[in-house]
Amino acid sequence: MRVSGTLSRGRRGLNLTTEQGEIWVLEADQDVDHLIGGWVLVEGIPKGLDRLRADWVGIPTENANPE
User: Fold this and answer.
1) 15-31: pLDDT as tens digits
2) Which residues, 6+ apart, have CB-to-CB distance to 54 below 8 Å?
3) What pairing do the DSSP bridges indicate for beta strands 51-58 and 39-46?
4) In this structure, are residues 59 and 16 in contact, taking their beta carbons and an 8 Å threshold?
5) Distance (Å, whole) CA 19 – CA 37
6) What SS3 state is found at 11?
7) How many C-beta atoms lie closer than 10 Å to residue 28's C-beta?
8) What was the pLDDT predicted at 65?
9) Residue 60: pLDDT band by 50, 70, 90 thresholds?
10) What domains are defined for the chain?
């Protein structure tokens, strides 16, 4: 699965909020603190209703930010 949105930190860990307002709780092994507050692209596997096991988190190579 590939999804993009704004990365933030919440009570349950890392959150990704999509343009549509969906919130995914990310499980990521890599250090992504430097990406918090920015628009990111996440590739991973859904784990439950709102969790995403991230294989990769990074800045999109093309401008995927709708703003």
Assistant:
1) 999 999 999 999 999 99
2) 26, 27, 28, 29, 30, 42, 43, 44
3) antiparallel
4) no
5) 14
6) coil
7) 19
8) 52
9) confident
10) 2-58 (2.40.50)
Six-digit token string for 58: 């990074």
Quick one: what percent of the chain has pLDDT higher than 70? 91
Q: What CA–CA distance (Å, rounded) separates 26 from 7?
A: 9
- Helix/strand/coil percent split, the chain, to 5: 5, 55, 40
For the cut 50, the answer to whether the pLDDT of residue 67 exceeds it is: no
| Dihedral sign, Cα of residue 43, residue 50, residue 15, residue 52 | negative
Looking up tokens 């996440």 gives: 42
Look up the pTM and report it: 0.85
Contact (Cβ atoms closer than 8 angstroms) between residue 63 and residue 41: no
Scan for tokens 């988190």, then name that residue. Answer: 57
